[in-house]
Structure formats: C-alpha cells, structure tokens
Task: inverse folding
C-alpha cells in the first residue's frame, strides 16, 4: 500500500505524515519500519530537510517505479480470486470450530489428488 501511494504521487514526494494519512490503519511504527526497509532495498529515496523539526520526504526510485506493473497484475489477480480465497477462509474457520478430524481437507481439482 505504501508503494502504491508513492506511485500515485510520482515523481513527486510525500512527507511521512501525508503517507500515514493515505494508508488506512497503519501505525506510525509500522510505517516507519516499512519505509526504512523500502529505503534499504533501494525502492524508496528519503530526503531530510534541515528544519525544526526535520521534514522527511519519500519518493519512489526508478527501481521502485518498476514495481508498478507487477503490483498492478498482483492486484488484478487478488481481486479476481478474492471470492475463492474468502470461501477457503470460511471453510478453514468452520473446520477449526468443528471437532478435530484426522483427515485433511483436499481440493478435488488439485493436480495429483487421487479420487476416493
């Protein structure tokens, strides 16, 4: 989500507080850890203005911008498969709340699954 927000504002920069407002539900600590990791990986550039307090700006690097297409494809995949993922989660929760069974749930359409 952080990369997506930075991509939407590219080639411009966003300050830390702006990013925090744009990413729903993220804590200050998680945003800080995420940005630090993205900077270390070379996906995000960090610029500090020598003001009091310091103003810290973030922007995607060329490497970070190259993620736009693969992440868009991943979003499309997730949106397409979300009903199936939700169904699997509901089934798993139902299995967890029912009495324990030794037989694992199998996907009958999975390759290599033998019919019984």
Result:
């Amino acid at each position: 989500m952080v990369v997506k927000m930075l991509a939407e504002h590219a080639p411009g920069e966003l300050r830390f507080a702006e990013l925090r407002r744009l990413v729903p539900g993220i804590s200050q600590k998680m945003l800080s850890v995420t940005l630090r990791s993205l900077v270390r990986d070379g996906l995000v550039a960090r610029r500090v203005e020598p003001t009091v307090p310091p103003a810290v700006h973030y922007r995607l690097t060329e490497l970070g911008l190259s993620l736009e297409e693969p992440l868009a494809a991943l979003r499309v995949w997730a949106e397409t498969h979300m009903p199936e993922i939700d169904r699997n989660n509901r089934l798993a929760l139902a299995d967890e709340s029912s009495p324990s069974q030794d037989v694992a749930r199998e996907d009958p359409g999975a390759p290599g699954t033998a019919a019984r």
Remarks:
- Residues 45 and 59 are 5 Å apart (CA to CA).
